[in-house]
Specification:
five-stranded parallel sheet; alpha+beta; 14 helices; binds dihydroflavine-adenine dinucleotide
C-alpha cells in the first residue's frame, strides 16, 4: 500500500490552496478529485473573470452559526496575501466595484497560477478519481509522521480506497465543497465523511441565489424581464444596496443574491426603489412644478419609461399630479420605497453560488481546521458552515482556510 503524508479530497479552491501550503512545507501531498479538471468552479466564477478576493474582507461578511470561527484564518491569510500571489504571477486584475477584484482576462489565470504552485510544491493530483471508503486507526507508527505526533504516540492513520489505489496517510483533508451546481461535480460527500466521524452537520440551503416569484407576480412583471434597478433590498434586519434584476422566473441581480442568504421561506423582503431620494418631498416639488404632468411621466425621471408605466398601472392611478392629495403622494412614496415581496422560493442549488450551513464549526479548530474529536481529519472551504457575501468573500475563505490547514497537516 502506498503511503503519503496528506490526502486532500477535492481539488477546488480550498483543496488546491491547502495542497500548495502543505507541499511548500515538504509534505508529500496527494490531491484527489472526481472531476476531469481541478478548480472547475474557479473557471466559471465571476462570469469567467473570477472575483478572487475583496479589498474589504471583514468577518461580518460571513454567515455561520459561530460568527467568530472565520476570524483566525482570515487574519492569518489575508486578501493582501492573495493579491501578492496574483501579482507575483503578473495576473492583471481590476476592482470592479465595492472592493471586488476580478481578473482582467480570464478566470483561467487563477486556476493556472494555482496549478503552477502545486507543481512547484510537488503536489500529486489524481483527477477522475473517487473515494470508495475511508478507514481510520490511531496509535500507528508512520514513517514520515510529524514529530509532534510521534512524540505523543497518537499518530492517526487513514486508509483510503480510491477508484485507482489504496493509499495510507497521516492527515486527511476534506475539501469537497458543498451542494451548489451539481452539474459541476458538487456532492454531499464532505457531509457524509463528517457523519462517518460523528461530526454534526447543520441543515443546508442554497445561498446567493435568485428568488422565484408566485404566478401572479410573474404575470404582472413578465414584460419587464431584463430590467435592472439600483435598489436597497432588506430582510431580517440586513440590507444591501446594488442592482436588482427582474427575470422570467422572478428576481435576481447582486442585491437579491446577497439578501437570499438571509432569507427563509415565508419571509417578506422589502425593496426601496429610490434609495437616494426623500421621495415625498420630491413628489410634492414636482406637483408644484408640473401640476398637469401625469404620474407615470414624472416617474419616468426616476425609472425607465416601461418600468414607470408598469408600476403606475399596477399600483397607482395615472392622473395629473395636481389631483393627488398630500396623503396620496405619501402613499405612493411609501409604496415605491417599501415594496414588499414574498418570494415563492429560490432557484435552489441548481444556480446557487454557495451553500449555507454544512459541517458544524463547533467541532472544528478555528486555528487549524482539524476535527477536535478526530486527530488528523480536517475540513476546509465551503463544506464548513461558513458562507461569505457575494464579492470575492467565498474564495478568500477557501484560500484562508486552505492555507491555515496546509500549515499544520
Ligand atoms: P469547490 O466547490 O470549489 O471544490 C470542491 C471540489 O471537490 C470540486 O472540484 C469537486 O469536483 C470535488 N468533489 C466534490 N465531491 C467529490 C467527491 N465525492 N470525490 C472527489 N471530489 C469531489 N466565489 C467568489 O469568491 N468569487 C466568485 O467570483 C464566485 N463566483 C461563483 C460563480 C458560480 C457560478 C458559483 C457556483 C460559485 C461562485 N463562487 C464565487 C463561490 C466559490 O466558487 C466557492 O465558494 C468556492 O469554489 C468553494 O471552494 P471549495 O474548494 O470549498 O469548493
Amino acid at each position: 500500500m502506498r503511503q503519503v503524508d496528506v490526502v486532500i479530497i477535492g481539488a477546488g479552491a480550498a483543496g488546491l490552496f491547502c495542497a500548495i501550503s502543505a507541499g511548500q512545507r515538504g509534505r508529500k501531498v496527494l490531491l484527489i478529485d472526481h472531476a476531469n479538471k481541478a478548480g472547475k468552479k474557479i473557471l466559471m466564477s465571476g462570469g469567467g473573470r473570477c472575483n478572487f478576493t475583496n479589498y474589504f474582507i471583514e468577518p461580518d461578511c460571513f454567515l455561520s452559526n459561530n460568527s467568530h470561527f472565520c476570524k483566525s484564518a482570515l487574519a492569518r491569510y489575508t486578501q493582501w496575501d492573495f493579491i501578492a500571489l496574483v501579482e507575483k504571477y503578473q495576473v492583471l486584475y481590476h476592482e470592479k466595484k465595492l472592493g471586488q477584484l476580478f481578473c482582467d482576462n480570464k478566470s483561467k489565470d487563477i486556476q493556472e497560477l494555482l496549478l503552477k504552485e502545486c507543481e512547484i510544491s510537488n503536489v500529486e493530483i489524481h483527477l477522475k478519481t473517487s473515494v470508495e471508503n475511508i478507514k481510520y486507526n490511531v496509535n500507528t507508527k508512520l514513517e514520515n509522521a510529524k514529530p509532534e505526533r510521534n512524540n505523543n504516540k497518537n499518530t492517526p492513520q487513514f486508509i483510503l480506497k480510491t477508484s485507482k489505489e489504496t493509499v495510507q496517510c497521516e492527515s486527511l483533508v476534506i475539501a469537497t465543497g458543498a451542494l451548489s451546481i451539481p452539474t459541476m461535480g458538487a456532492t454531499g460527500f464532505g457531509y457524509q465523511v463528517a457523519r462517518q466521524f460523528g461530526l454534526n452537520v447543520l441543515p443546508t440551503r442554497a445561498g446567493l441565489v435568485p428568488f422565484t416569484m408566485p404566478e401572479k407576480w410573474l404575470s404582472d412583471f413578465s414584460e419587464l424581464s431584463g430590467t435592472s434597478i439600483d435598489a436597497v433590498v432588506s430582510c431580517n434586519e440586513k440590507s444591501f444596496r446594488e442592482n436588482i434584476l427582474i427575470t422570467h422566473r422572478g428576481l435576481s441581480g447582486p442585491a437579491i443574491l446577497q439578501i437570499s442568504s438571509y432569507w427563509n421561506l415565508g419571509d417578506e423582503v422589502t425593496i426601496n426603489l429610490t434609495p437616494d431620494l426623500e421621495l415625498v418631498g420630491w413628489l410634492l416639488q414636482k406637483q408644484r412644478q408640473k401640476p398637469n404632468a401625469l404620474l407615470a411621466s414624472v416617474l419616468c425621471e426616476l425609472f425607465t419609461k416601461k418600468l414607470a408605466q408598469k408600476l403606475v398601472e399596477l399600483w397607482f392611478e395615472n392622473k395629473p399630479l395636481k389631483q393627488f392629495t398630500p396623503t396620496e403622494l405619501q402613499h405612493i412614496a411609501e409604496h415605491l420605497q417599501s415594496w414588499k415581496i414574498k418570494p415563492h422560493g429560490t432557484e435552489g442549488y441548481r444556480t446557487a453560488e454557495v451553500t449555507l450551513g454544512g459541517v458544524d464549526t463547533d467541532a472544528i479548530s478555528s486555528k487549524t481546521m482539524e476535527a477536535k474529536s478526530t486527530p488528523g481529519l480536517y475540513f476546509i472551504g465551503e463544506v464548513l458552515d461558513v458562507t461569505g457575501h457575494l464579492g470575492g468573500f467565498n474564495f478568500q475563505w477557501a484560500w484562508a482556510s486552505g492555507f491555515v490547514c496546509g500549515e499544520v497537516v
